[in-house]
Amino acid sequence: MRKRIGLIIGEADCEYEREFIPYVFKAAKRYDYDVFVFGNYGTFDRNLRLYSDGEETVFRIPDYGTFEGFIVEESQFNITGMEKNLYKYLSKNVPDEVPVIYLKTVKDRFYSVLASDKQAVKAVTEHFIRDHHFTRICHMAGRRELTDAIDRMEGYLEAMEEAGLKVTSDMIFWGDYWYNKAGEALDTFLHGTEEYPEAIICANDYMAIAMVKELQRRGIRVPEDVCVSGYDNAEDGTILNPPLTTVEVPMNEMADLAVNMIHNLRAGREVNRIEYTSNLTKLHLRDSCGCVHFDEKQNLSRKLEYLRYQAYGMDMCVSLEAGYHIAFEEEGIYETADSYFGYNRAESGYLCLCTDAFAANRRPLDIISEYTDDMVLKRVFHRGDEKNYESPETVFPRSAILPSGYLDTPEPSLYFIYPIHSLNLVYGYMILHYDEGDWVNKFTQDYLQSFGEAIENFTIRNEFMDMVEIRKMYLVDELTELSNRRGYEQHLQTLIDRAKRRKLHLTLVSIDMDGLKFINDHYGHFEGDYALKAVAEAIRKSITEEEVAARIGGDEYAVILISEDPRRYLAFESDFADAVKAADENSGKPYEIHASFGLCPFENLDAGAQEYMEKADERMYQNKMRFRETPPEYVRS
Questions:
Q1: Cα separation of 59 and 499, whole Å?
Q2: Distance, CA of 428 to CA of 51 (rounded, Å)
Q3: Is 637 part of any domain?
Q4: In a shared domain, residues 292 and 276
Q5: Which value, in Å, is the radius of gyration of the alpha carbons in the chain?
Q6: Same domain for 497 and 381?
Q7: Which tens digit of pLDDT belongs to each residue from 9-40?
Q8: Which of 9, 391, 578, 622 could serve as a FRET partner for 80 with CA atoms 20 to 30 Å apart?
Q9: Cβ(266)–Cβ(99) under 8 Å?
Q10: Cis omega (within 30 of 0) on the bond before 223?
């Protein structure tokens, strides 16, 4: 089998990815590597978090030891917190001999390729200062946790400082590299006044496009009243009205550096931990800063061509979903998928399902489920007018990605892999292979999402008729009978509201059972289930009737403590530690039952739970690391 490298990236149908991924493939072909793109679609909408969780499972698909290396482009993730979860997962699961190359950001343990972001944004800022004579220039930065966002902001700050221009806190806004925060950023820049900045420098094109549209929505002309610039030279910016002034980074050089690093490391050669591209960033001056005449006719022509490609097949989405709804047999689901496959524009596709995808006793909903070790190749799709599918029904190890023979191509190939799921219950994955010139489009997301929902609807309709049972399935973890993730989120908001009304104190607890993989591997999954239930029972013994406990992952639990006592967590800490110790001593098992946990009391009930959940999780992992080396000393603050 040909050697292969993996690329983990989001939103592959967007302009940046359409340009960058082929560069990676071109570089990989020099070394005869196949490239597997582990793609995902996402949303920053917190109401769709469970859908995002399902998309996030894409990085659980590969057996990392079977790849030469991985490239990660996390700035394109459109899922809140995915970059943290991915880094944690890679740190735990990637063998030391398999290099991971992060682009645009620096991560401990892994390698990095960085562009000259600071100098590029500095050049844009200097252009507004030198050529336009602006003095009030604001900056919409990228995601605060990313190295490239920090570098770009430093370029802006350095240019402003060298020009003797003061930067106040209301002139910088930390965004998210996506379209949805332009209004909030503009309000920050205005700072309660009607004095608009002369120019706004955005850390990427998506935010810049949104900023142009937000200004226009408020009746502000671009560039006559406010100039705007972006970064990345995405195609969306070229068809904007007016076209976007931006910076083009050397994506081909970044791809070359990343692939070369993997190849050299696997060959035993020394490689710098951080590699930088040359200063080949290119400033594209267009009409959003008033430097180039806007050709409306040419712009409209390009926009129509771009929209035609992106909209291809979108008119078939309603028919696709209707076809799935009337599929009363499993084969009907596949037939519907067959009928609409061509709208993906892929040359071929491979539908690989978990061995228990249609099982009567499925894994619990709302647990971020693992893919089965063995998969079933259910369908092979082919683009064309004749019969366009095969039904191999071949069982194969997931580590192989596909059964033997399907990847034996004369030349290196580029494959896109996407999860098939309903919310965060995974059923399998789809592999798409494109000929040169075709690409993932907007229809693909609906095609994949509808397939997962079709399996879910089919199994529910055929297996569950009692609504009480359906409600229990949605809110209760079947194994431990604690709340599941969905139930936990419902209870969390209820308890926050209760704490506000009654002036009570809340504490979030993150718990992770230690050694589940070891128990499963050495004693079997039955014993693993026993240990999971033992930890659940220890939690149950340590909380009051008003408090909530949930199993939110395979070996992960969460607890919400509520009390008049602000230090209620001290009693829980002691009771839970004693309960787990007793469960271990009384089990008579050859393995140790142990769980690490972290606590985080709420400081402000109006602030939302996300930051407290993250702190509790972080403290739990500190304790987990300590447990592996010495008896744990629990971190509470």
A1: 37
A2: 15
A3: no
A4: no
A5: 26
A6: no
A7: 988 877 778 888 999 999 999 999 999 999 98
A8: 622
A9: yes
A10: yes
